[in-house]
Amino acid sequence: MKIDIGITEEDRGKIADGLSRLLADTYTLYLKTHNFHWNVKGPMFQTLHVMFETHYTELALAVDDIAERIRTLGFPAPGTYKQFVELSSIKEDEGVPEARDMIRLLVEGQEACVRTARSIFPICDATNDEPTADLLTQRMQVHEKNAWMLRSLLEG
């Protein structure tokens, strides 16, 4: 059945493409955060273990919201590791970094998600896609706050 929500199929496709990149970044950051949760050690173990769990739990819920928005726009959501690797701006890390490096890498991942979300706004604004803009705003708020909290652990 044809989708008639006031946004052309071409524009919905552009938005879905951007959201697919955000989905890939979010899922990649989820995996990285979960990996670091399992493997962190050192004097900040308890703090980081709990913080990383909070972050990956939130990311696990976020991927569903992003994928469902892609589906709402009428396009398939990417869902394979191969697709995520191709779409994500966040790269995997080799080995198990030291705790401070984990924090730094997660700050970079959180900020990458913000940049990806921000890059989708022009097409949302042009097409009056407020639901996607709202989702992007929420994601940016979470990622910016997480980046700040992580960054704060490296100061002082």
Output the keywords:
DNA-binding; DPS_DNA-bd_CS; mainly alpha; Ferritin_DPS_dom; 5 helices; Starvation-inducible DNA-binding protein; DPS_DNA-bd; Ferritin; 156 residues; elongated; 77% helix
Task: Write up what this structure looks like.
The chain has 156 residues and is mainly alpha-helical. The protein has a single domain, classed as Up-down Bundle (Ferritin), CATH 1.20.1260.10. Helices cover 77% and strands 0% of the residues. It contains five helices and no strands. It has helices spanning 9-39, 45-72, 81-87, 99-127, 130-154. The N and C termini lie far apart (58 Å). InterPro entries: DPS_DNA-bd, DPS_DNA-bd_CS, Ferritin-like, Ferritin-like_SF, Ferritin_DPS_dom.
Would you tell me which CATH topology applies?
A: Ferritin
Shape: elongated
Helix content: over 70%
CATH superfamily: Ferritin, core subunit, four-helix bundle
Strand content: under 5%
By secondary-structure content and strand pairing, the structural class works out as mainly alpha
Tally the beta strands: 0
Order of helices and strands: HHHHH
CATH class: Mainly Alpha
CATH architectural label:
Up-down Bundle
Summarize the biggest pleated sheet.
Answer: none
Mean pLDDT across residues: 97
- The Cα radius of gyration reads 16 Å
Q: Indicate the multimeric state.
A: single chain
Query: Roughly how many Å apart are the termini?
Result: 58 Å
Question: Number of DSSP helices?
Answer: 5
Briefly summarize what is shown.
77% of the residues lie in helices and 0% in strands. The chain has 156 residues and is mostly helical.
